Structures are given as structure tokens and as C-alpha cells.
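User: I've been trying to design a sequence by hand for this structure and keep getting stuck. Would you show me what you'd pick, starting by listing the structure so we're on the same page?

Assistant: Good idea, let's start from the same input. This is the structure you sent:
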């Protein structure tokens, strides 16, 4: 099996190397996920993003790029925090970097589950589902939004 990991952060890629040392077939790329999918010719059985690029990339760009790189029946699944009520679409946060540096600006895309389902269908995904999984037992209440879709007919590279 070939497993490909993509992250902008060298630290995250180092963590992957530490966690899975010497795994055959694993390759890691320091890259923007959208750029990776736009440049790659690989075809994947499954693509997943855990609180990662799918949350921080315009879905109007990333969903078709992933779709074009999935096998027929291939799955795209991603997780992120559920939206804050009333705050939907592209959200921007300022992340402090230090007293002498401007804060980093991080954009993310938040929608309610039904809206994610509609967006995936619009981009040609089939068998779509989106739901909020409850937090595990304990003091924290925020669950996890889990979205999933399968490569449909539309959006295949080279087809109309
Ligand atoms: C909240 S962390 C989650 C990391 C890890 N998946 C986890 O669950 O612990 C978000 C990660 O997404 C990565 N990321 C954000 N936007 C990205 C993009 N456009 N392409 C690749 N990686 C991205 C960040 O570098 C960061 O490592």
C-alpha cells in the first residue's frame, strides 16, 4: 500500500516520521494540499483530512481537486470542529506570533452538516453524509463534524 501525507508544517511531518518509522510505502510532502492535488497525477482509494487542510482551504477549490484524484468509488472524508452557531462560510482568525511580529491570519471554512452535504453534491460527490459526532465522555462538550463523500461521475480529469 502507498500512503501519502501532505502538510505545510515540517513539525507535523517530523511527528509522522517519529510515529511511523521505516514504514514501507509511506511518503510525506511539505506542501499546500491544494497545490499537491493540482500538480499530482496519482489516483487515490481514499483521501482524508483530520482537522487539516480541508478545514483551511476554500472547498470550492479543494473539493474538485480531490475529486479529480480519487478512483471511482474512492472516498474523501474530513473532520473539523462543528461551526459556531450563526458563523458560517469563510472565517478568519488572527493568531498571535510574538510582540514584534504581525499575527498570522488563518482562514477556515465552517458550515452546518446539511450545507456541507449540499456543497459536496454540487461538486459531483455521491453518497455524501455530514454529521456531528458527540464528544467522548468527560468534561468537554464540543463534538467533531465528520463529512464524507464518494467520487461520482462528474469532475473526472479529462471528462466533460
Ligand atoms: C489543527 S492541525 C491538525 C493536525 C493533525 N491532523 C492532528 O489532528 O493533530 C492543522 C494542520 O493542517 C495543516 N494545514 C492547514 N492548511 C493546510 C494546507 N492548505 N495544506 C496542507 N496542510 C495544511 C497545518 O499545517 C496543521 O498541521
Amino acid at each position: 500500500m502507498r500512503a501519502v501525507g501532505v502538510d505545510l508544517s515540517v513539525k507535523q511531518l517530523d511527528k509522522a516520521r517519529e510515529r511511523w518509522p521505516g514504514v514501507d510505502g509511506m511518503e510525506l510532502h511539505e506542501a499546500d494540499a491544494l497545490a499537491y492535488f493540482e500538480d499530482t497525477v496519482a489516483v487515490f482509494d481514499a483521501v482524508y483530512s483530520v482537522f487539516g487542510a480541508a478545514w483551511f482551504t476554500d472547498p470550492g477549490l479543494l473539493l474538485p481537486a480531490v475529486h479529480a484524484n480519487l478512483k471511482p468509488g474512492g472516498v474523501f472524508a474530513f473532520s473539523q470542529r462543528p461551526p459556531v452557531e450563526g458563523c458560517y462560510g469563510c472565517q478568519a482568525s488572527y493568531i498571535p506570533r510574538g510582540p514584534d511580529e504581525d499575527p498570522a491570519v488563518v482562514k477556515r471554512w465552517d458550515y452546518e452538516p446539511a450545507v456541507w452535504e449540499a456543497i459536496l453534491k454540487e461538486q459531483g460527490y455521491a453518497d455524501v453524509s455530514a454529521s456531528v459526532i458527540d464528544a467522548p465522555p468527560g468534561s468537554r462538550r464540543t463534538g467533531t463534524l465528520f463529512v464524507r463523500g464518494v467520487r461520482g461521475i462528474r469532475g473526472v480529469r479529462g471528462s466533460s
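That's my pick for every position. To get oriented when you compare it with your attempt: Residues 109 and 158 are 28 Å apart (CA to CA). Residues 10-19 form the longest helix (10 residues).
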